[in-house]
Queue: 3 jobs
Job 1
Amino acid sequence: MTSSRPFNFSAGPAVLPEPVLRQVAAEMLDWGGSGMSVMEMSHRGKEFGSILAAAEADLRELLAVPANFRILFMQGGGLGENAIVPLNLSRGGKVDVVVTGSWSRKSASEARRYADVQVAAEGTGREIPRDWQLRDDAAYVHVCTNETIDGVEFHDLPQLTNGVPLVIDCSSHLLSRPIDWSRVGLAFGGAQKNVGPAGVTLVFVREDLLGHALDICPTAFNYETVANNQSMYNTPPTFGIYVAGLVFQWLKGFDYAGKRGLAAIEQRNIDKAALLYGMLDGSGFYENRVAPSCRSRMNVPFFLKDESLNDAFLAESKATGLLQLKGHKSVGGMRASIYNAMSLEGVQALVSFMKDFEARHG
Ligand SMILES: *Cc1c(COP(=O)(O)O)cnc(C)c1O
């Protein structure tokens, strides 16, 4: 089925796969012959139970999550986790944060409310800094593996050799590529970038990190409590989990370049990013300022060298059916977020618009 919808480059909440939206629409009034919308079901009934179980199993399979990790469906978003992680993992002790951009900077300042936080290294937002000053007695090290605003991505997870657990905020590239769980203690991500609607936060936590929450940790945010209650200590975000579950099924069946599932979506993400960065680098009219070794496959900030053309660029791109290309206010310029659900055709359309715009205004 081909779409006539515009291409949506929003950084989040962001584009969802059209087949998923169509299925949600078709099931809106009556899910699976139950006579109820998913929004109207008890979270403890067998219908929602089956939705949650399938979502968790599919997610575990897609990301090859090891058996000693629990998957939690929470609320509070990435910013909520900036508090929930130190409340659960810091034990009131030391936390090292590597600052690679806006989101990890926010994580460091929130964790300061609960722990002794040290910035282990700080980049400019255009690269991953070297020479991390890590403390062997830290409770964990926090990194943001894809800086949504700056467009900086870790293409390999750091291998910490001192046994300190690594916590990753992977909100904006979760499910765009595999995760090397051997290097991770805890991963979290809000759903609204690459996974589903806003309101669901996914947490993957290694079992040995459960059970150390501070007394002041709200019970509903205690990972051990949430895990022991299969994400149903309190009412989970049922509709969002349902939509995310449909996204997982879409991903499992995704075919591209002779590959299937996560490998297929990763390959398409690589191809989309190569197309867009290739055009930017080949142009004297546009530029991306992030070091090539850590450019994000998901969020591509770029600038028109003549910034007086910004308004015209945004107006014309929108009129062409290319939506939400304005950059984050802290960075300026433009940003194209090209998450899993963005097609190759969408990026091709963006690239040809940009070439055409350059020809007319360059
Ligand atoms: C969007 C985002 C957040 C914040 O998510 P909220 O759901 O708004 O709390 C945190 N970290 C990263 C990397 C993000 O992209």
Note: The chain has a mean pLDDT of 97.
Job 2
Amino acid sequence: MTKTPFVTKDRLVSICEHFPTPFHLYDEAGIRRNMEAVRDAFAWNPGFREYFAVKANPNPALISILGEYGCGLDCSSATELILAEALGMRGDKVMLSANDVPAEDFRLAAELDAIVNFDDISHIPFYRHVAGPIPKTVSCRFNPGGLFQLANGIMDNPGDSKYGMTEEQLPEAYRMLSEAGAETFGLHAFLASNTVTDEYYPALARILFALAVRLERETGVHIGFINLSGGVGIPYRPDKRANDIRAIGEGVRRAFEEILVPAGMGDVAIFTEMGRFMMGPYGCLVTRAIHEKRTYKDYIGVDANACDLIRPAMYGAYHHITVMGQANGPDKSGSPAVRTYDVTGNLCENNDKFARDRALPEVEIGDLLVIHDTGAHGYSMGYNYNGRLRSAEVLLREDGGCRLIRRAETPSDYFATLDVQAGVHARLERIAHGEAAQGVR
Ligand SMILES: *Cc1c(COP(=O)(O)O)cnc(C)c1O
């Protein structure tokens, strides 16, 4: 089983002549085709809107592509709200789905007239205290507790998750919001992450639709939208089947017809907050083999590290790797796997491995490697441990051209937050710029 990169070896070699590795490369055509499929899958619901989860990939160039299709943004912090505003989004195009929310996030949401998705009932008086009047359109996040199961097994453990309100709290929260002036209500839940099954959204929809009917009857509020949030997964492993968004949309439609329409709630809008599904497969981390080490195992050291992609280190997540080869060498992308390697980054941290015991073609120093599916929760989870600097982001455009959509960090970025003596600062800057000029990342 294999996965094919969205870029050919020859094209990648030419891209690398312009942009030094490592960098995240994104596939505009893939993002657009997938966005169109999402739009079509939910076209049966006139109010449908995808609020792209900014935390999955906060690059403005990529968000703008989704914006062309009418997407809103799901923000998790004040900084992401600032990004939304900078992209011209406000009002019902912006959702704040945060938890443990700082006052400034609520204040900024109020300024942008954003939809606030309350994570907890106690946040309602907190919001009024720090941000002012309750917005006209609000939402509440539901957590059913217990284990969340589908036919193929346990998907996740909501009972152990910090998010959302209990079913008992919801009517009380709606009443408080209603008395405070809210007019349109939403219901939201996120019960399982990276679900590679077409059953997740329909099963979640059934739970939320039935709950919405009960809540509307019990409290009399008008439920305007139901937000299925994120959680639609992607096949990181080559033997997994990709989700079929049309089947997912159709499954949600059936639940809608069976539960909401008979209850007189056929005007409810369906919202989603997908991050991974919108971007994950349309990004990859391009890196180069710089060392081969043979000790108790065989290691390939690459020029990227966990600061560029933390998922393998943090979750033991699988990311497929294709060895592409080098400029004048053979195209290795279809070659049989003949060796077993750990593919490592350079952090002083033994979990900085993109792959463990991975069967790959023979890797030579200088070979380009593509680490797949980094378009979501890739760059955005980056950090600066060991003084390592985050990589660039490059967009492979539909017309085949390339555009740098975020430069790589330089040492100056790393030192920018320091308040040190002027002399030290000048020295750091001088060294940093000297290094940057020589192409040191
Ligand atoms: C992370 C998150 C999402 C996106 O999740 P994906 O798994 O990337 O689809 C959506 N909504 C909320 C509230 C989130 O925290």
Note: The radius of gyration is 23 Å.
Job 3
Amino acid sequence: MLHQMAHNKRSSGILFVSLIVIVVCLGLSEAQKQQVPAMYVFGDSLVDVGNNNHLKISIAKADFPHNGVDFPGNKPTGRFSNGKNFADFLAEKAGLATTPPPYLSVVSSKSNDGFPTTGVSFASGGAGIFNGSDERYRQSLPLSKQVYYYSTVYGDLVQRLGSAGAQTHLEKSLFAIVLGSNDLFDYFKSGSNQSNEITPQQYVDSMLIDLKQALKGLHDSGGRKFLIAGIGAVGCCPSQRNRVKNEECYEEENQMAVKYNEGLKPMLEGLKSELKGNMTYSYVDVYDVFASFIQTPSAFGFTEVKAACCGLGNLKAQVPCVPVSTYCSNRSDHIFWDLYHPTETAARILIDMVFDGSQQYAAPINVKQLIAA
Ligand SMILES: *[C@@H]1O[C@H](CO)[C@@H](O)[C@H](O)[C@H]1NC(C)=O
Ligand SMILES: *[C@@H]1O[C@H](CO)[C@@H](O)[C@H](O)[C@H]1NC(C)=O
Ligand SMILES: *[C@@H]1O[C@H](CO)[C@@H](O)[C@H](O)[C@H]1NC(C)=O
Ligand SMILES: *[C@@H]1O[C@H](CO)[C@@H](O)[C@H](O)[C@H]1NC(C)=O
């Protein structure tokens, strides 16, 4: 009996030591894989990791169930997803230990440690390139506000690291910008006068002018490596299918997304040459990735391409994902979590496809090449 216990103790001791060795080795290899000093995230609900939790009167919120059912800890965090979103998977791929935290959490926290040197997120549900998002969801951070907040972080970095130190840090950092869908939703919202007075081409042209302005602002404050997402096939999300008969995709809206994406590519190329090549970018073709999901769902394990997982009514898109809504049992076979947003699975697959994939999905270089550039 004693012998047995001693033996058990010894072997559990050995097990314990080997576990420590494994953990330490994993820890080291994870740390060594960190590929960027920091990531700065700008955008809308596709990448919001909790900024809107701090906007008192915003109605663009996801800080309640069933959001987060598959997030570590199974709790809502402000992400518009059952689990992780694009920002989380991007941070993982870039080897960061954590996803850059929401700017508004950092500034509202009592401890005065300053901004983390591994980056900050300015993304806010409901945000658009245009300033109108305060009208849409009562309160959110439009791109101009996000860029302004970034300039305060830049000031903080310069103070701590000096100009040269901040520049060295920032020129290796990744700037991820994911937005534009809300501006399109605005254009098509019922009762909107936009569509009578402004043509789709004029509208996307002016979105691109404002985006270019924002990118120049980020470049002026040290940004050099940009991941820029195009607009996805927004007309195929459950809320928009619900507006069309036979649950087809809302074609005019998709065509406008294509128009925007077609303009975005030459705009970025132009900006790069204006900045004398002092900027690199990867354009991420969200539209093409989602078109692939919808055209060949089985290739990705999806069996439901139209309906949301969480919601109520037709396509689970008549009532959003709120606590009284029901949600599907298998979140891996749905493209859409709620009436607007992809599932964690769809987000993970997209980031896999654009991180180290072909030019079809990320051009002129993929995200891995952008980081290495
Ligand atoms: C958007 O808002 C910012 C900050 O209030 C302002 O500086 C900018 O001129 C506005 N842009 C437009 C196009 O109205
Ligand atoms: C839309 O246009 C009509 C007539 O041109 C005008 O009366 C109305 O106030 C406009 N609505 C909005 C939201 O601008
Ligand atoms: C490019 O950026 C570097 C710092 O990263 C700066 O010294 C240089 O002046 C910039 N060149 C142009 C053309 O903007
Ligand atoms: C959930 O869906 C995924 C992807 O289609 C599939 O691989 C898995 O077997 C499903 N799980 C269950 C419990 O049905």
Note: The first strand starts at residue 39 and ends at 43.
